[in-house]
From TrEMBL:
<dbReference type="InterPro" id="IPR013094">
    <property type="entry name" value="AB_hydrolase_3"/>
</dbReference>
<dbReference type="InterPro" id="IPR029058">
    <property type="entry name" value="AB_hydrolase_fold"/>
</dbReference>
<feature type="domain" description="Alpha/beta hydrolase fold-3">
    <location>
        <begin position="1"/>
        <end position="70"/>
    </location>
</feature>
<dbReference type="GO" id="GO:0016787">
    <property type="term" value="F:hydrolase activity"/>
</dbReference>
<protein>
    <submittedName>
        <fullName>Carboxylesterase</fullName>
    </submittedName>
</protein>
<dbReference type="InterPro" id="IPR050466">
    <property type="entry name" value="Carboxylest/Gibb_receptor"/>
</dbReference>
<dbReference type="Pfam" id="PF07859">
    <property type="entry name" value="Abhydrolase_3"/>
</dbReference>
Amino acid sequence: MCEQANCVVVSVDYRIGPKTPFPACIDDGWESLLYCYENADAIGINIKKLAIGGSSPGGNISSILCHKIGSISSYFSTSCSPTLDRPCLR
């Protein structure tokens, strides 16, 4: 799919609980994002065409990163099945 879209895909192996509690996964995602920005030319990333996405817990992480990245650049966000609110626990 990334070949047809002519894009680079970076998959982050973020830390998960309970061994590593929150917000370690956010820290890992943020550090990975900064790495991509700082090394964009070397890894072939056009930072003006950035997209962040994830599925389920990755969707949550990508949503949080999009809030943080707003100060850096424009971006496109897509999340599949993020759990952004838990009304069943109210």
